[in-house]
Write a structure and sequence with these properties.
Elements (H helix, E strand, L loop, with lengths): L6 H11 L24 H16 L3 E10 L10 H4 L6 H14 L9 E11 L5 E12 L15 E3 L11 H5 L10 H14 L3
Antiparallel strand pairs: 1-2, 2-3, 3-4
């Protein structure tokens, strides 16, 4: 089971699992409530979500906690990344807020707008066993946002070494696994670690 109610994450996580022949149902499809994310780190929140889902559904559960970490903002929004968008998931507004805060700090050059995405993945079994993996991708924050692919803060995130934002990249370019893709995104990089440890080769 994929322990998320976020349709963008659900789509990406299903795409990551599909080459391994793993069929997954979403937590929302089973009517499971979202647990309160009280952790102090991405890893802790991923574990909370996976463990709660595994215990409730009596199935192995796969969860992600991820977010944007902006150097000039002291690491914000970090684990609060989704909350910055509010209950209406207004990521366009959240991106405007980040850009305004950066400009308020005088951060207008690429070097001053460094950021990275973090993804912490957890697989939890009903017996309480967990496996955890974490990865990041570094880049800068572009303005104005570009592209309508992906979700969240993708349109303003320009990964190092690329001319396209995550919002402009196809799903295969962003998180396709080798040999089809580069495993570029933070979630793909963490998933490669998980796959090696838990799933073997596709």
């Amino acid at each position: 089971m994929i322990a998320t109610h976020n349709p963008g994450k659900l789509r990406e996580m299903r795409e990551l699992l599909s080459p391994f022949g793993v069929e997954a149902v979403a937590a929302g499809a089973l009517g499971l409530a979202e647990p309160e994310e009280t952790g102090a780190s991405f890893r802790e929140n991923a574990r909370i979500k996976a463990a709660a889902a595994a215990a409730a559904a009596h199935l192995p559960a796969f969860s992600d906690d991820s977010g944007l970490v902006v150097d000039a903002l002291g690491g914000a929004p970090g684990i609060q990344s989704a909350r910055w968008a509010g209950p209406g998931k207004d990521f366009a507004g959240a991106m405007r807020e980040i850009d305004a805060l950066l400009r308020g700090h005088g951060a207008v050059t690429p070097d001053a707008r460094r950021a990275h995405f973090v993804s912490a993945l957890c697989v939890a079994w009903p017996d309480g066993h967990v496996e955890e993996f974490e990865a990041r991708v570094d880049g800068t924050l572009a303005w104005p946002p570009r592209g309508d692919k992906g979700f969240g803060y993708d349109p303003m995130f320009l990964p190092d070494g690329y001319d396209l934002t995550f919002g402009e990249m196809s799903s295969e370019a962003k998180h396709g696994l080798p040999p089809r893709g580069l495993g570029l995104s933070h979630r793909a990089r963490a998933f490669l670690k998980l796959a090696e440890a838990c799933l073997g080769k596709p």
